[in-house]
Amino acid sequence: MNKAIYAVMAATLCADPVMAQLSSGAFRGATAEMGDSGRQNSTEPMTGTREMKKVASPSQPNGLYGLVDLRHTVNDYYNDSGEMIRRDPALHAKLRMGGNFYNKTLDVSMGVGAAKLPASQRLYQKRPDLTVDMYPLRGQLFNLLVYANALFPVRADDLDPTEFADGDRYDRDYRRAIDATVISLGLAPNAKIELTSSIGKTSMTLGADAWTRMYSRPIYISEEDGSRDLGLLATDAPIVDKPFEDRAMRYVHQESIALGFSPAVLPRLKLEIAGYSEARYIPKYQYDDSSESWGYTYDPERISFTRFKLDLDLTQTTSLSNELFFFRNGLFAEDRIGDQRRFRNIVRLAFKL
User: Fold this and answer.
1) Is 4 a member of any domain?
2) Is residue 1 a part of any domain in this protein?
3) Helices (H) and strands (E) in the chain, counts
4) Rounded mean pLDDT, 228-247
5) Is the dihedral of CA 296, 186, 255, 322 positive or negative?
6) Residue 292's pLDDT band (cuts 50, 70, 90)
7) DSSP annotation string for 78-96
8) Which end of the chain is less congested by CB atoms within 10 angstroms, N or C?
9) pLDDT confidence of 61, banded at 50, 70, 90?
10) Would you list the DSSP string of 191-233?
11) pLDDT grade, residue 133 (50/70/90)?
């Protein structure tokens, strides 16, 4: 789960500036928490599945704010015969404190949270994060969001196990930095049009998001840490006798389109369907005999997913939503099987302090 997704979720946000922030969810970082995408969910977490990105929307709280996000998530996994082999539910809670500055072109916030699995009374700690969002351009039709997000490490025994929920290469690669601060930098433009009629308000949002990530400590390529199984080494690459630093940046870009509707008889209700395509660029190392050094090329992979969302503003400060995600490999081409999540459902209750 993110993330990201944040770039297109503006179509579902309510008119109230505080509730716009509440409804956005949030995910920046691995797609593990989806919402999880490239940015770890700032209010949650697209991802991955990442909980996804913050919305590049002009509607945000004024001045200082506090947000609480409670959610119940369910991940479903299937085999190649179409039978569900595993269902992983979890409860999440997140507190976010922040503020807007310079006429709301700068948003700075910090978040802490916890997760609980149903089979245990233990609370796991979610990574504390610091998020900075900058809006060089913002308006009713077009927004440009530039963001930076830092996810700080916690003790491995305390870390939220759902942060690495998915089993695809991107999440398994991200898992190698479990004890490092993960820093994501990204750019997310979106454009939205709205049409109001006697039956309600219809909207269409086109979004994009591109990000990269870095770590606070070196990450190494070796035979012992599963680098070869991850495809980080070419199939004909020699045995790595001495681990070397993995110096290649990871890149991800995501494109999306969302259609939303809010009926005139119940304007607090928002319905949305959205489609996402995400390309991930992961390095593949090969040894160069002539230079006696390791070089790399990129081995891109693509996933796609559909999101169905129902969002209801209960009060001026409280929002209830349900999101269902359906993931595919390629461009909506292949089923995800085994430890690759196929479905994810999120029920979220969010409110302002």
Assistant:
1) no
2) no
3) 2, 15
4) 88
5) positive
6) confident
7) E-TTS-EEEEEEEEEEEEE
8) C
9) low
10) EEEEEE-SSEEEEEEEEEEEEEEEESS--EE-TTTTTTTTT-B
11) very high
Residues paired with 263 in a beta bridge: 200
Q: Are β-strands 269-288 and 293-313 bridged in parallel, bridged antiparallel, or unpaired?
A: antiparallel
**Sole residue written with tokens 């390529």:** 221
Segments forming the whole domain that contains residue 204: 9-352
Helix (H, G, I), strand (E, B) or coil at 9: helix
User: What would the pLDDT profile of 166-214 be if each residue is shown by its tens digit?
Assistant: 667 787 787 777 788 999 999 999 999 999 999 999 999 999 999 999 9
Note whether residue 71 is domain-resident: yes
Tokens read off for 89: 């539910």
Nearest CA among 99, 28, 103 for reference residue 66: 99
- Check residue 30 and report its DSSP letter: S
- Is 127 part of a structural domain of the chain? yes
What does residue 19 show for φ and ψ, rounded to 5 degrees? -70, -25
Domain count, the chain: 1
The Cβ of residue 106 has, within 10 Å, a number of other Cβ atoms equal to 13
Which of 147, 116, 121, 155 lies closest to 7 in space, CA to CA? Answer: 147
Question: In angstroms, rounded to a whole number, what is the distance separating the alpha carbons of residues 318 and 194?
Answer: 24
Find how far residue 11's CA is from the centre of its chain: 17
pTM of the model: 0.80
CATH of residue 129's domain is 2.40.160.40
Bridge partners (DSSP) of residue 306 are 275, 326
Q: Is 134 helix (H, G, I), strand (E, B) or coil?
A: strand
User: What kind and span of H or E run contains 128?
Assistant: strand 123-138
